[in-house]
Design a protein that fits this description.
By secondary structure, this protein is α+β, with helices and mostly antiparallel strands. It has helices at residues 6-13, 99-111, 137-150, 165-172, 187-197, 203-206, 221-225, 231-240, 270-277, 287-298, 352-359, 418-423, 474-483; strands at 16-22, 25-31, 35-40, 50-53, 57-62, 69-76, 85-92, 123-128, 154-159, 181-185, 211-215, 243-253, 258-262, 265-269, 304-312, 350-351, 406-407, 430-436, 438-442, 464-469, 495-507, 514-516, 519-521, 526-538. Strands 12, 13, 14, 15, 17, 18, 19, 20, 21, 22, 23 and 24 form a 12-stranded antiparallel beta sheet that branches. Strands 1-2-3-4-16 form a 5-stranded mixed beta sheet, with helices on both faces. α9 packs across α10 (287-298). The radius of gyration is 26 Å and the shape is elongated.
Length: 542
């Protein structure tokens, strides 16, 4: 039996095929389960077969300037390692009444449903914090909101206006009515969302609601660790709907029996002081940490005395990467891709994003592509200069505790390893009592956009990276701060690094601060325990 040709294979998979005009030239266009394929017709020599993979497309809309045309909105890269950029691909039908069929077919293919079936419209709650970081969150959302309109996602937009507002929203939100909750701010709002979801009677179900992190604060470590350090990247992956599990850790304060939940890091001693004392400089953005770090180097290097108890466990000393083995559960890492199934690429096809770099200068073509115009969205309706209460201004000192705790034992996951440490029956337990220059407990690789907390941290391996140093000289402390740029501090002889699942910290003086996910909490004996893969975040599939 003769093998089929590539074109026959395409036609067999096609949901809709016809000749349309693209870039001023007739093209044979096919909507396939995972892409749009188009090739010059009837003269293929005019150019190669192009494809628009749906993994790089966020939506399709009628072209307002021509009743016969529709526009496919892509956010793809022109090559490996290059940033995503917006491009609009315009296709022109022969008759106006054909346009609706093409739009319906493309939307069905993207949703993975048969032609004629309407996929449920996704709904997201978006929290914009105007006081976050350098105060750019409102402008960031205004720029991104049109992407969500193109993707036909229903947005409930809320501007936070007081401390704990995000936590209150997450605590009372009808999670069954939404497909995710999105923060346009820094790491503090994400911590509030986590604590809100875990302080509900239905916390086990509520915590499954995917969380989106669009960087709009001064630290943005969560977004950066999720491989979405730029707002457009974060928005794109939220729209595409791919998710991954992330470890959550509980932190119980013994003094008042309060429980906090975190996903990023905990710091004590000099590193915590840099974080806390840089609060008045939030208007500087991420540079505030460097600025205060320089000040600490010029001061006398001091220590904080404490007692640490933990059980070291075996853990990966490799960096987290795509398909990271350390982060895998028994089942594959949870991913929810809203596009159709992946099919083999046609050999002669090339990405339209790669081809687009040269097509604009091709003298043989006359373009009918619409130039990208400023997009507007009703979901971006926020005041330009929102009124923010004085205590929420980024240049005002925060309250003693910047995150609202949960009554211990009321809701949320139970700590099951800590009782073993307290009873003295934990095999292999280690106790350290000393004067410490710094202590860092982290679950994620980054602790800001540019600083590495631990190169060996994994988001969902069920362990925490514990690092600390005893007394350090000023040159060693200076080297420590510089080493955070590439994570080489874990190899310094002054720094101890351990993997653990549970940890007890007893401060023996009150000389410093406790900073949990970038927020100040009262000093007390603390019990930490990790809960593997408890939260779900929007993130790239790999």
């Amino acid at each position: 039996m003769a093998s089929s040709s590539p074109l026959q294979d395409v036609l067999a998979q096609s949901m809709l095929t016809a000749t349309l005009s693209y870039d001023g030239i007739p093209h044979l266009v096919s909507v396939l389960p995972n892409r749009i394929r188009f090739v010059p017709n009837p003269n293929p020599r005019k150019g190669p077969a192009l494809f628009l993979p749906f993994c790089d497309v966020i939506g399709v809309q009628p072209y307002q300037k021509d009743p016969k045309a529709f526009v496919v909105h892509g956010y793809g890269a022109s090559g490996p390692g290059k940033p995503r950029q917006q491009r609009m691909f315009a296709f022109f039908c022969a008759l106006p009444d054909e346009r609706g069929k093409w739009i319906a077919a493309i939307r069905s293919a993207m949703a993975g449903v048969p032609v004629g079936v309407t996929a449920p419209r996704r709904r997201l709650v978006v929290l914009v914090n105007p006081a976050g970081g350098a105060g750019k969150a409102v402008a960031i959302w205004r720029e991104l909101a049109p992407m969500f309109d193109i993707a036909d996602i229903d947005i409930k937009l809320i501007q936070t206006d007081h401390r704990f507002h995000a936590q209150e929203i997450a605590q009372t939100l009808d999670t069954a009515a939404y497909d995710g909750i999105v923060s346009v701010s820094g790491d503090g709002i994400i911590m509030e969302i986590i604590n809100g979801l875990l302080s509900r009677p239905d916390w086990q179900q509520a915590v499954k609601l995917p969380i989106g992190a669009i960087p709009g604060g001064s630290g943005n470590a969560v977004a950066a660790t999720l491989a979405t350090p730029k707002p457009i990247e974060a928005a794109f992956h939220i729209i595409k709907g791919t998710t991954r599990p992330v470890d959550v850790w509980s932190c119980r304060s013994v003094a008042d029996n309060k429980m906090y939940y975190a996903v990023l890091n905990f710091t004590w001693a000099l590193i915590a002081e840099i974080d806390k004392e840089s609060e008045p400089y939030r208007w500087m953005g991420n540079f505030r940490f460097t600025w205060r770090g320089i000040g600490k180097v010029l001061e006398k290097i001091k220590t904080s005395r404490g007692r640490l108890t933990f059980v070291p466990v075996e853990g990966s000393r490799n960096e987290c990467s795509a398909q990271c083995a350390a982060c895998q559960f028994d089942a594959p890492v949870a991913e929810r891709q809203l596009d159709g199934p992946v099919a083999p690429e046609v050999p002669e096809s090339v990405s339209a994003f790669e081809e687009s770099e040269t097509s604009a200068t091709d003298g043989d073509r006359t373009t009918e592509d619409p130039a990208p115009e400023p997009l507007q969205s009703s979901a971006s309706d926020l005041p330009v200069d929102p009124t923010v209460r004085e205590q929420d201004d980024p240049r005002s000192p925060p309250a003693a505790s910047a995150v609202s705790p949960v009554e211990s034992g009321s809701y949320g996951p139970a700590q099951v390893l800590i009782p073993q440490l307290l009873s003295g029956h934990a095999e292999g337990a280690v106790t350290v009592e000393d004067d410490l220059t710094f202590l860092l407990l982290t679950n994620m690789r980054l602790m800001s956009l540019t600083q590495v907390g631990s190169p060996w941290a994994h988001m969902s391996d069920g362990t925490l990276d514990l690092m600390f140093s005893r007394r350090m000289s000023k040159p060693a402390f200076t080297q420590l701060l510089l080493s955070f740029d590439d994570g080489s501090h874990v190899k310094m002889k002054e720094v101890e690094h351990h993997k653990t699942r549970a940890f007890i910290l007893e401060p023996l003086d009150q000389s410093s601060y406790f900073m949990l996910d970038g927020e100040n909490i009262p000093i007390s004996t603390l019990h930490f325990e990790v809960h593997r893969g408890l939260a779900t975040f929007f993130a790239p599939a790999n």
